[in-house]
Structure prediction request, 99 residues.
Amino acid sequence: MKEKEKPDLLKVGYYMELNGVSRNEMATRLNLTPASITNITAGKTYPSVDLLLVIAEMFNVDIRDLFNPTKVNYNDQIDEAKSLIKKGYEILEQIQKRE
Prediction:
């Protein structure tokens, strides 16, 4: 039987890349090994809440920003799409008025 794939819960790697922080630099700043950072970013291990708070502080984000959503709220996405479509129509109307 095939093992169920773990969901990608954390965005630590994303914030490392966004802020130009290498695996070695992250390990040094958190007093961990580079292998520990690799395991965290690969989803093989999960840091403690205390460590997540330090990571959030390091990247100047809310701790909740380190997590990927586990449930999708399609209503929010639909509302956002409607808003973008409405803005698009408004831009088109402005262009038409100029012509």
Q: What stands out?
A: The chain has a mean pLDDT of 89.
